[in-house]
Amino acid sequence: MSTFIQLHLLTSYPPSNLNRDDLGRPKTAIMGGKTRLRVSSQSLKRAWRTSDIFSEAMKGHVGIRTKSMGIEVYNAFKEKGVADGKAKEWTKQIAAVFGKCKKANAAKPLEELEIEQLAHFSPEEKTSIFALVDKLASGAVAPTDSDLALLQKKHTATDIAMFGRMLASSPAYNTEAAVQVAHAITVHAVAVEDDYFTAVDDLNNGEEDLGAAHIGETEFASGLFYLYLCINRDLLIENLGGDQALANKALASLVETAAKVAPNGKQNSFASRAYASYILAEKGGQQPRSLSVAYLKPLRGEDILGKAITEIETKRANMEKTYGKCADTTKTMNAETGEGSLSDIISFVKE
């Protein structure tokens, strides 16, 4: 039976535009018949895995997502004196291991060395790729099937282990995600507002033109977000080749980044940085479940955070009454009352 770690976070953001839609407006969703602010799970996961906190803690165990690894490989071949034709052909053979290469484009001669979809490369795979480049360049021979097969490595990329990897053209490289992340959503209804702004030309002395040099408009909103994560601890350890110590380190980094890091959309305009005010962590082998239903009816009033904490704790208690224990053990951190701590939560998920 798998051990699941469930995290429930409440984080309040002031006026902001953390995650924009195709029109530049904050993303929203309808829940309980009311419009709520939303931050997508994709945006959250990228912000976490590229954050300074995660990068420093997991140094040497973080992958890179790109379509352009083939360009780097080609450049490496060229630096080693491999002829252009061979460099391109060998590069395409290596790139094809991770995805289908793009079609040739006369206007962009190197585009055919890129793959069509983003691929997530682990540090070990990147090392193997450039080791193969060295071997081929020194021997002046094309890669064999066995050479290319060696690129499939057991890896220790914690971001791949947590958030998964899917390569449609190379399913052998797929990794099932050990961490599921919900879209963060506000516990109350919201209205997206418009900010009309102007910019003044510092060298305009007003003698000829008193108007602004620039007029613009941007959208924003604020809210208290509920975020839910479900972690399959056993799968995480399996994805990392059984390295439990590394899995614990990854869990600690994930908890800290989820509590402290948000997408950086429009941060220079809004400085909307925030820490989680409340964290509920649950651990056990029971079927996981979100507690978003606690906010199906949007909260109202002045003490939204206090009400949100009461609602989630009440809903959890009622779930326990009707379904039985939904987790073996729990731990909470409440920055509103000063109870618990982030270090307590991190220790709990690592136990």
Short description:
The chain has about 350 residues and is of the alpha+beta class.
Description:
The chain folds into two domains: 4-60 and 177-193 and 223-350, no CATH class; 65-156. Helices cover 35% and strands 21% of the residues. Strands 1, 2, 3, 6, 7, 8, 9, 10 and 11 form a nine-stranded antiparallel beta sheet that branches. It has a two-stranded antiparallel sheet with strand order 4-5. The chain contains twelve helices and eleven strands. β2 (28-31) and β3 (34-39) form a beta hairpin. α9 runs antiparallel to α12 (342-350). It is of the alpha+beta class. It starts with a strand and ends with a helix.
Distance from first to last alpha carbon: 17 Å
Helical proportion, percent range = 25-40%
Number of helices: 12
Q: How much of the residues is beta strand, in percent?
A: 15-25%
Mean pLDDT: 92
Determine the structural class based on helices, strands and strand pairing: alpha+beta
Taken from the alpha-carbon principal axes, the silhouette is flat
How many independent structural domains?
A: 2
Rg from C-alpha positions?
Answer: 25 Å
Largest sheet: 9 strands, antiparallel
Number of strands: 11
